[in-house]
């Protein structure tokens, strides 16, 4: 069954396969190596300018959130509200979360018939545009211990559009 010739062919096939992989690895190293060799003292092939060497970066302009809301698009905010519809309603009835009609200017934790967490109920204050901005950015950071599982809206434009839309929804 296994004679010398069959064994020799199998061994030669394995050696040939390993030789192909070895030569392929060497060819790959030659094609894709950017350095001039191993060890220290070799320059990098190219430098990517990240702007980190500049002495002082220009400070970003801080725009008041109320100004962003005044310039925001309530129509775009209505689309962003699609992320809120799973828990919040605009018809005066509570869902998983309290209803949001008339939320701008309303006291925090003041919807009758909704069981707020102790953290929200004891927070105080009212839902101003700035407070809504902080809440929508990260509810867990704004009022630690609240029950809202939403992670937040990262884009300030989305938050401004949503607040502009909520300002148009009255009870």
How does the overall form come out from the CA principal axes? Answer: elongated
Alpha-carbon Rg, integer = 31 Å
The class by helix and strand makeup works out as mainly alpha
What is the CATH homology-level superfamily of the largest domain? Cytochrome c-like domain
Gap between N and C termini: 90 Å
The ordered string of helix (H) and strand (E) elements is HHHHHHH
How many structural domains? Answer: 2
CATH class of the largest domain: Mainly Alpha
What would the average pLDDT be, to the nearest integer?
84
CATH topology of the largest domain: Cytochrome Bc1 Complex, Chain D, domain 2
Largest sheet: none
User: Which CATH-level-2 architecture of the largest domain?
Assistant: Orthogonal Bundle
Low-confidence stretches: none
β-strand amount: under 5%
Number of strands: 0
What is the helix content?
A: 40-55%
Number of discrete helical segments: 7
